[in-house]
């Protein structure tokens, strides 16, 4: 705690706007707690009050405030600008944009552009007084900025020209999953720990909002206009952007949603700690994936399907050749031998990329999400021995079968048993907060030709009363006995014992705090190569 308090004092000294905010807060309520990191498993639902400030890269800070009986609020703490500050900014903005427009070589990355802006602002700003001020402005075309304001104005220029302007604080915050703006109303976010919250940030008028949307989409080479009012695009960091620009379509004004990309994926051990899945379910996936089974992670929107899919990729054999196919780059795998492909409008769609994947002869194909005709190609890949992992919109195994065999995907029912595992994940409400749970894992056993039906069996189910995951297929699992055991050279009894062993390993990793995605991959790889002797800790197998 002393370390955090020292960090708080230093932050207050460096950032007058933070100091002013905290002083104002203390006059009306109480001093907040300053933290540099929030535990991902914090039990928010049982907390009557929350009063936490954390940094997201100076000069930006976030205050999460919840008074007893109220909903939590997300308050962005950022510098405020006077009319005089904005005049300095506008003059420099005009000078810089005119210089950049005349340049032959345009920066190709955000880092290059920021470096260029720093260089240009230093060249174009001056702080001389008297006659020298006149000389600098008239003869040299420089802009006067008081010395104490130089850093302040430079940061504003970088934010507006090279970063995300009004929503910069949200894009910096690693705990935010979604950003939602509707017209000039306050922006809402979905926080990984505190859930859905209203913020204190909004656009001052529609003109500012429209200008922001146009500049952002233009940078992505998909400018939003009245002619093209709906835009879906991938942002440079991999986040998904959806824009509805026209008031004819979005009645409350232009709107946008950003689904943020997580740079370091959530690990399977973190999912176990959150009780999204159980150690036994994770061990089951570990064995099935090692044996080359195909699996679909199903669920509705915001169920955490892609998060779970990314977590499970650490179970793929370390030297495997992996080929991923996506509309927007969300999938991440830690393997070196990974071919990552993304659709390009008018040049290559999911169907094209999957056909190319088949020619590449990968050990595993990962499809971001199957929605259309590419599903048929994915099943052809499985038919020819290429295991596939993907996400899919369906709320049950029966819904999966109906949707995958109906239009527009139209996979013949005879092909469906090529997918051995269909897992369903949901967002569920417990203690006033949304949690993600793997509610079922079903095995697809075979196609029954006389009735035209698919034979399935439920291997795991989630009990909402006790919030526990039940393994219903002990000594009765089709995947473990008929797929995993023969592929990995095990007897039927032996494969269940191996599941116990791997579940115990994963439990031990959670208890010892091995929650980092890359560390989990390293330990899984060591076990695959060296067995229990390769692990840095003993494992007690029940």
Describe this structure in words.
- The protein is α/β, with parallel strands linked by helices and 542 residues long.
- It has a domain at 275-489: P-loop containing nucleotide triphosphate hydrolases (Rossmann fold).
- The chain is built from 17 helices and 21 strands.
- The protein has helices at residues 2-14, 16-28, 83-101, 110-124, 130-138, 150-162, 168-172, 206-219, 268-273, 279-290, 305-312, 350-360, 374-383, 397-405, 478-488, 492-511, 517-530, and strands spanning 33-34, 50-55, 61-66, 73-77, 125-126, 143-144, 176-182, 188-191, 195-199, 230-234, 240-244, 255-259, 295-299, 322-326, 338-342, 364-367, 388-393, 421-430, 433-448, 453-463, 468-471.
- The strands form three sheets. Strands 1-2-3-4-9-8-7-12-11-10 form a ten-stranded mixed sheet. A nine-stranded mixed sheet has the order 15-14-16-17-13-18-19-20-21, sandwiched between helices. A two-stranded parallel ribbon has the order 5-6.
- A hairpin with a 5-residue loop joins strand 7 (176-182) and strand 8.
- Helix 4 (110-124) packs antiparallel against helix 6.
- The longest helix is centred in the C-terminal third of the chain and has 20 residues, at 492-511.
- It is globular and about 95 Å long.
List the helices and strands and how they pair.
Blueprint: H1 2-14, H2 16-28, E1 33-34, E2 50-55, E3 61-66, E4 73-77, H3 83-101, H4 110-124, E5 125-126, H5 130-138, E6 143-144, H6 150-162, H7 168-172, E7 176-182, E8 188-191, E9 195-199, H8 206-219, E10 230-234, E11 240-244, E12 255-259, H9 268-273, H10 279-290, E13 295-299, H11 305-312, E14 322-326, E15 338-342, H12 350-360, E16 364-367, H13 374-383, E17 388-393, H14 397-405, E18 421-430, E19 433-448, E20 453-463, E21 468-471, H15 478-488, H16 492-511, H17 517-530
Helix pairs in contact: 1-2, 3-6, 4-6, 10-15, 10-16, 12-13, 15-16
């Amino acid at each position: 705690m002393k370390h955090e308090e020292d960090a708080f004092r230093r932050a207050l000294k460096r950032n007058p706007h933070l100091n002013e905010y905290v002083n104002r807060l203390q006059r009306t309520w109480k001093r907040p707690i300053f933290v540099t990191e929030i535990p991902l498993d914090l039990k928010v639902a049982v907390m009557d009050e929350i009063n936490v400030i954390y940094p997201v890269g100076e000069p930006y800070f976030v205050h999460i405030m919840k008074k007893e009986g109220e909903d939590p609020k997300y308050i962005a703490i950022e510098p405020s600008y006077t009319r005089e500050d904005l005049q300095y900014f506008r003059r420099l903005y005009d000078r810089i944009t005119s210089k950049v427009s005349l340049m032959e070589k345009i920066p190709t990355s955000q880092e290059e552009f920021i470096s260029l802006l720093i260089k240009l602002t230093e060249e174009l700003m001056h702080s001389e007084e008297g006659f020298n001020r006149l000389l600098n402005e008239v003869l040299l075309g420089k802009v006067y900025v008081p010395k104490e304001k130089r850093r302040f104005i430079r940061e504003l220029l970088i934010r507006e020209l090279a970063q995300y302007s009004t929503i910069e604080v949200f894009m910096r915050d690693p705990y935010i999953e979604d950003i939602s703006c509707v017209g000039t109303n306050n922006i809402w976010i979905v926080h990984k720990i505190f859930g859905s919250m209203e913020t204190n940030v909004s656009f001052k008028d529609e003109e500012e909002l429209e200008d922001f949307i146009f500049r952002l989409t233009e940078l992505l080479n998909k400018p939003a206009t009245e002619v093209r009012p709906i835009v879906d695009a991938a942002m440079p960091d991999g986040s998904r952007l959806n824009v509805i620009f026209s008031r004819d379509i979005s009645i409350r004004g232009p709107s946008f949603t950003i689904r943020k990309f997580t740079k370091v994926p959530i690990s399977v051990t973190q999912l176990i700690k959150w009780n999204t899945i159980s150690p036994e379910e994770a061990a089951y996936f570990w064995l099935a994936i090692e044996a080359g089974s195909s699996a679909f992670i199903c669920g509705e929107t915001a169920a955490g399907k892609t998060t779970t899919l990314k977590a499970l990729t650490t179970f793929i054999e370390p030297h495997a050749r992996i080929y991923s196919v996506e509309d927007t780059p969300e999938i991440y795998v830690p393997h070196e031998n990974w071919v990552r492909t993304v659709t390009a409008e008018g040049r290559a769609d999911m169907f094209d990329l999957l056909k190319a994947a088949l020619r590449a002869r990968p050990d595993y194909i990962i499809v971001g999400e199957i929605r259309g005709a590419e599903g048929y190609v994915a099943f052809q890949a499985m038919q020819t021995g290429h295991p596939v992992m993907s996400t899919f919109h369906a709320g049950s195994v029966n819904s999966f079968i109906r949707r995958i065999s109906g239009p527009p995907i139209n996979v013949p029912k005879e092909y469906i048993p090529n997918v051995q595992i269909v897992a369903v994940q949901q967002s569920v409400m417990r203690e006033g907060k949304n949690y993600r749970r793997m509610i079922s894992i079903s095995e697809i056993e075979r196609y029954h030709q006389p009735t035209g039906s698919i034979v399935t069996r439920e291997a795991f189910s989630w009990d909402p009363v006790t919030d526990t995951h039940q393994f219903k297929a002990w000594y009765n699992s089709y995947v473990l006995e008929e797929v995993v055991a023969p592929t990995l050279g095990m007897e039927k009894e032996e494969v269940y014992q191996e599941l116990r062993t791997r579940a115990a390993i994963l439990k031990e990793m959670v208890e010892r705090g091995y929650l980092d995605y890359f560390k989990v991959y390293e330990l899984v790889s060591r076990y695959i190569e060296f067995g229990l002797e390769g692990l840095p800790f003993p494992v007690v197998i029940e």
